[in-house]
Design a protein that fits this description.
The protein is of the alpha+beta class. It has helices at residues 3-22, 38-58, 74-88, 108-129, 138-156, 202-209, 224-237; strands at residues 167-172, 175-182, 185-188, 196-199, 219-222. The protein has a five-stranded mixed sheet with strand order 3-2-1-4-5, with helices on one face. A hairpin with a 2-residue loop joins strand 1 and strand 2. Helix 1 runs antiparallel to helix 3 (74-88). The longest helix has 22 residues, at 108-129. The chain is globular, with a radius of gyration of 18 Å. The two termini are 21 Å apart.
Length: 238
């Protein structure tokens, strides 16, 4: 996605998360994050926003991670951190160098993309706790699927993740990916005959990869063990 579109998504999703969190008691459970309450969720996302702000401004991974609101209202604390993050992640500077955890993308744009998706998935969590989760924007979800496959699996794929190198196709309106998992390698094999095909809206497929949507909400053809192996691999690295 264009950096300016990602910046707009980050602003929109950050605001929507706070609005949803304000609608429910802080001890309300978050369906997509077992054992986590809305207060825990807000504190987690607020702490990630602060960590990344420090990472960018200091030029290296911070040793300390500010996680505690310190008596402040958690949603207010979250809003302050989100505003600081958004101010730092200027889309006009997306190509400028920045310290990141990705070996092949050390630009400010990496964080702009990563924080847009991080915030969007957790916005869904907050809205689900309030009983009104809206789907992800189509373009954002398409980019989110790409990010999961190329960034998360590409950087962190565990040795035991592969399922005999069998290919799986993920298909959403206007786009599809065919991948096979090997030891430490994600093979984008567009010409392969897939062992399974997973289809659905871009939002549903992206949220399924993140464990927020069950397999039953997608169309699955072929070997379901390959589908579950992909989902398990993603769960292992995110």
């Amino acid at each position: 996605m264009d950096p300016h579109a990602l910046a707009g998504a980050l602003r929109t999703e950050a605001t929507a998360l706070a609005v949803a969190a304000d609608l429910v008691p802080p001890d309300r459970p978050v369906p997509g994050c077992p054992g986590m309450t809305v207060a825990d969720l807000v504190q987690h996302v607020g702490s990630v926003h602060r960590l990344v702000t420090r990472w960018v401004t200091r030029g290296s991974r911070p040793r300390e991670w500010p996680r505690d609101p310190g008596g402040a209202d958690p949603v207010d604390w979250y809003r302050i951190g989100a505003a600081s993050l958004i101010a730092v992640l200027d889309p006009a500077r997306a190509v400028e160098p920045a310290a990141t955890w990705c070996p092949w993308d050390r630009t400010l744009g990496f964080w702009l993309r990563r924080m847009a998706h991080e915030t969007a998935v957790h916005r869904v969590d907050a809205q689900a706790a309030a009983g009104l989760a809206a789907p992800l924007d189509h373009a954002l979800a398409v980019d989110g699927i790409e990010e999961v496959l190329r960034l998360w699996l590409g950087c962190h794929l565990p040795p035991a993740a592969h399922r005999d190198g069998l290919a799986i196709t993920l298909r959403v309106p206007g786009r599809e990916w065919t991948v096979a998992l090997h030891e430490h390698v994600v093979d984008f094999c567009a010409t392969a005959d897939p062992a399974a095909v997973v289809s659905g809206s871009a939002s549903a497929v992206d949220l399924w990869l993140w464990g927020r949507v069950p397999e039953s909400e997608l169309s699955v053809e072929g070997d379901r063990s390959v589908v579950r192996a992909l989902r398990a691999a993603v769960a292992g690295v995110t």
